[in-house]
Each structure stands twice: as C-alpha cells, then as structure tokens.
Amino acid sequence: MKRTFTRNAAVTAAVLTLSLSLAACGDDDDSNDNANDSSNDSSMTSDDPMTDTESPSMTGAEPFGEGCKLIPADGAGSFTGMASEPVATAASANPLLKTLVSAVQTAGLVDTLNGAEALTVFAPTDDAFAKIDKKTLDGVLADKETLTTILTHHVVAGKLSPDMVAGEHETLAGDTINVSGSGEMFTVGKEKASVLCGNIQTANATVYVVDTVLMP
Fold first, then answer.
1. How would DSSP label each residue in 152-187?
2. Helix-helix angle 144-152:98-107, to 10 degrees
3. How far is CA 10 from CA 4, 22, 140, in A?
4. What CATH fold (topology level) applies to the domain 66-210?
5. pTM for this structure?
6. Model confidence over 87-140: pLDDT tens digits?
7. What DSSP state is assigned to residue 189?
8. In what order do the strands lie in the sheet with 193-201?
C-alpha cells in the first residue's frame, strides 16, 4: 500500500513538472512572437520618417539667392502664394516686380504669359528698371512693339531648373539668350545680369529675378 502511494505520488509529480515546462515554453514562444511583432512595427515606423525626411531634398525645388530674403514670408507675394498662380498674376503680388508687371500689362502680354503651359522668366526688379534713364524708359513704354520685343526677350519656353538653366536658349522674341554659371551663381545675357533669387515656382513658370533689364 505504501509502495503504491509512493508510485502515484511520483507519477503526479512528473505530470506537474511536464505541465509547468510546457507552460513555460508557451510563454517563451509568446514572448518571442511579441518581440518579433514589436521589431517589425519598429522597422515600419522608422521607415516612414526617413521617407518624409528625404522627400523635400528629392524635389530640388527650393528658391535660392540673397534676394530671396526680400520675398514676403506669407501672402500672395510669398513663395507659397506665387506657386498657386500663373506667372503674370503671381508676379503682380510680388513687391519687387511692380514695374515689370506694369510693362507686361501695357504690352498686353498678361493672357499670353498666364496661358502658356510652361515658361522660364528672367524677371527684372524695380531697381533694374530704375537703372534706365526716365526718358528712355518712358519712350519704350510708349512703343508697344519695342516693349513687347524687350519683354519676350526675358522669356524662354519650358520650365528650366537650376541644373538646366545654364546655356543658350531661344526666347519668345525669337532671338537667343545665354545663361552662365552653376549651383546658385548665375548671370544672364550680354549684360551679365545677376540672379538675385532663382528657382521661384509659379503655377506655369520658373522665375529667376535679375538685377538688370535684358536687351535684345
């Protein structure tokens, strides 16, 4: 009787030991599964911020140049505001380009510029026009044909990014214009006009603001 009891106790102890071992294994498996799931979640989470971080640098659409600090930080004349409007409308909100906008209106080129699919515009500032003596400027503004030729000499078909803008390009006036330089340093035309703020995006054009009026 005593021997039977001892044998039963031993069997019971073995069963309990086996059950505990299996439970422990199950806990380990669950822990491993949870760890793997966490690892996978962590990997997926870390990928997303990396993509977000890389996106702006891949666009290459940032304006550049010392003159860019003169562009309003917000409103219709800001980089964001100009990006949503066609080029003539966008320029009308920019405080640096009032004389240019007035000249474009006088020449009747607003619809032509706004309606084009893609352009690059070398846009002289008000200070650039101020370099021309008043009598000469008034004479040009009064001669629509001459004014149109001068203004379209500042416009090239297609949106030229900074890595494409250097070289010789045909203008809407039917002649050519040469851009020299690289990176963020460019000069335009025989006048060697400096780009003050380049790669400004509008809805249908890329704009390079220059410090000198370009002559055909």
1. HTTEEES---TTT-SEEEEBTTSSEEEEEEETTEEE
2. 120
3. 10, 19, 113
4. FAS1 domain (2.30.180)
5. 0.73
6. 999 999 999 999 999 999 999 999 999 999 999 999 999 999 999 999 999 999
7. T
8. 155-157, 119-124, 205-210, 193-201, 185-188, 176-182, 167-170
